[in-house]
């Protein structure tokens, strides 16, 4: 199980995620997010991440030049796109050297994309609730009967309490959490991070 803790913004919570055994750390550059970090701060956080733990920059509907500038300045390895970016945009990000995680809602996937998984050139597909980073879940029945692409990642309202049940039911290759490991909106809890990683690994 690949585990990503998203929306990290302090050294303490970043270290908690790494020490707990997370596979990936996420840094949000989408304007308006309560977890927004700037490139200089993200770079300091990324510098603490050991080799072998993935660093992911999270973006939504931002100009391509901004995304590439921020991703390079922060030093993240991977770019995660949550907006309405088109295949040409994905191609430009890939050509700049960043593997891309394509994040879409599970509803959209079932309605439009299930026959086209991978058609944006994404490295991995992340299925989320409609409002990313809001801690909302999507109905498990949404994906019933849908063929799911190899390596897909589950997100949206995951918590230390529900991650075991949801991963057993939906069988993703990875999980991504933000709100479910926070003590208040935008404020990560080291204890909740540890509890989530431990549950997801179990
Ligand atoms: O975290 C945000 O504020 C955010 C803003 C804009 C685009 C994406 C954002 N976050 C993405 C994530 O944190 C996760 O990939 C995912 O949506 C899970 O979020 P949550 O339901 O809060 O666990």
Automatic annotation (TrEMBL):
Key words, A-Z: Amino-acid biosynthesis, Aromatic amino acid biosynthesis, Isomerase, Tryptophan biosynthesis
Record carries keyword Nucleotide-binding: no
Functional pathway: Amino-acid biosynthesis; L-tryptophan biosynthesis; L-tryptophan from chorismate: step 3/5
Catalytic activity reported: N-(5-phospho-beta-D-ribosyl)anthranilate = 1-(2-carboxyphenylamino)-1-deoxy-D-ribulose 5-phosphate
E.C. numbers: 5.3.1.24
Highest taxon above the source species: Bacteria
Domain N-(5'phosphoribosyl) anthranilate isomerase (PRAI): 3-198
Gene Ontology molecular function, alphabetical: isomerase activity
Family: Belongs to the TrpF family.
Protein name from the UniProt record: N-(5'-phosphoribosyl)anthranilate isomerase
Natural source organism: Frondihabitans sucicola
């Amino acid at each position: 199980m690949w585990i990503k803790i998203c929306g990290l913004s302090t050294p303490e919570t970043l270290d908690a995620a790494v020490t707990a055994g997370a596979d990936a750390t996420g840094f949000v550059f989408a304007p308006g997010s309560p977890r927004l970090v700037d490139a200089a701060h993200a770079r300091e956080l990324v510098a603490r991440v050991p080799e072998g733990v993935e660093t992911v920059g999270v973006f939504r509907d931002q100009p391509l030049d901004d995304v590439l500038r921020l991703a390079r300045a922060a030093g993240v390895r991977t770019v995660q796109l949550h907006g309405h970016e088109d295949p040409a945009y994905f191609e430009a990000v890939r050509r700049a050297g960043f593997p891309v995680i394509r994040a879409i809602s599970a509803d959209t996937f079932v309605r439009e994309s299930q026959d086209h998984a991978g058609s944006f050139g994404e490295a991995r597909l992340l299925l989320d609730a409609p409002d990313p980073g809001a801690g909302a879940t999507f109905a498990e029945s949404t994906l019933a009967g849908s063929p799911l692409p190899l390596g897909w990642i589950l997100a949206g309202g995951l918590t230390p309490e529900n991650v075991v049940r949801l991963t057993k039911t939906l069988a993703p290759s990875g999980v991504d959490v933000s709100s479910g490991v926070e003590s208040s909106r935008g404020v990560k809890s080291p204890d909740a991070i540890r509890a989530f990683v431990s549950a997801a690994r179990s």
